[in-house]
């Protein structure tokens, strides 16, 4: 039985939200050197980490 398109979109949106949440959490623990390697400052990383889960 195929999953409806709405259910699939909800699942995909939830999966994307989880991935962003995990990535933002990881940023919190990177060193300044690691952040520099990916082109972010500490301030930019903390701004990203502090975004609400509604933020895309």
Automatic annotation (TrEMBL):
Domain named YjiS-like: residues: 10-45
Name the UniProt record assigns to this protein: Uncharacterized protein YjiS (DUF1127 family)
Species this protein is from: Rhizobium paranaense
InterPro entries according to UniProt: YjiS-like (IPR009506)
One family name in Pfam for this protein: YjiS-like
